[in-house]
Amino acid sequence: MTDQVVTAIINLDVPGPVINRHLYGHFAEHLGRCVYGGFYVGEDSDIPNEGGIRLDVVEALRALNIPNLRWPGGCFADEYHWMDGVGPKDRRPAMVNTHWGNVEENNHFGTHEFMALCELLGAEPYISGNVGSGTVREMSDWVEYITREGDSPMVRLRKANGREEPWRVRFWGLGNEAWGCGGHMSAEQYAAEARRFGTYCRDHGDNKLYRIAAGANSDDYTWTETLMKQLGDLGCAYRPAAFMQALSLHYYTIPGTWEDKGDATVFDADDHYRTMVKAAHVEELIARHSSIMDCYDPGKNVGLALDEWGTWWNVEPGTNPGFLYQQNTLRDALVASVHFDIFHRHADRLVMANIAQTVNVLQAMILTDPDSGALVLTPTYHVFEMNKGHQDAASLRVDLPGGVPVREVDSAPLATVSMSASRKDGRVLISLSNLDTAETADVELDLRGGALTEVSSRILTSGRPQDHNTPEAPGTIAPRVHERVTATASGLRVHLPAHSFVTVEGRTA
Question: pLDDT digit string (tens) for 479-490?
Fold first, then answer.
């Protein structure tokens, strides 16, 4: 069998937009075992913890240089009342999580616990406020409670609850999915609410808020245009209003129907390719929403935040259908790698992305076994780790003069080789994916404007796209050294086995 050959031209001395580290953000909702049983096990747990926060989860995520963590939702955000989650735990009122499993929660994981988690992770907090069932005053008070110093009613309450100094929290979401679970609002109705809530979320001292409005679902371009109209006038003299600094976008990779999304581990090659087509569709969504934003904001002052993305499968058999627990295969890892290539290409407008979700829910980084307490790193985790060198690096354009292999999938074209590159601190990182389940590929990297020394490479692959890690076999899929990278007259030749993800790193000479 002859390898497919792809030529890629990269100008090492022509940096593009910086890849915001927050494109590698995460999401922790009060959903299933993400918070309770995932991040938080309680102070009485036999699992090593600090203040109830599970330390092996923290250690694993710190290895990813996790930049931010979004909390408490998701749909849960718009039924969460933060005052119920502060103060002595034995006095906190319980609540019913009506969105996810209709279970009762004791509110033991609240604001102070979340902020402690972010400090342990070295991550910036991203808090989603309650617009759907909350009040402007409630959210304004939350911002004051967390970020204000000196003296005020909320400052005194925070100090009484054990925190003397304020925290720094830049990122605030003005509700979540206002078009759906966050209130079933029209775009015009939500735009008015966003103006109001955003106005009363104040900057306290030198803590400058970055307010993220609840943006569109998938291809609802009208929603994006309606919000952009609220920010200012059409044209080059655009001066964004101060009540929101970014819009969100949500898109999940679901190759099946909403009622039958497909199985996480049992699938054939056709299912695999349909999944990759759905994953690649995020590029069209980002490009079209960005184009609308460009009409109103040519200076790109307003950011786009894809703060929910990832695969969504049917839940694992025997688990609570409201807990959204699913396994994570090599296929999921390739979905992630393709997303990151797309994110890097749109780094001029895309300022944040948050995979859903970090632990035990949807396309998780980590799965924890409730019986044994074992922790499993998923294939998706390893893509984040292998790609972490792209954070805050200058993107490098990748030109493909001869194109890439294309497979027709239900009349839709699928490019089966994907790649992106960046440069930071004298080092270059190149990420390459082969989405084909059977064909190998060789990529000829034509490196111009410099050369690479001290080249190293790693690969993430397995015998089948269906392979995954379990408590019994946690290392089935893990990165290893990739030997099949060779020097050429113009740069490097990289061999890509079927269904593989490869990174190549080197120092610029």
Answer: 999 999 999 999
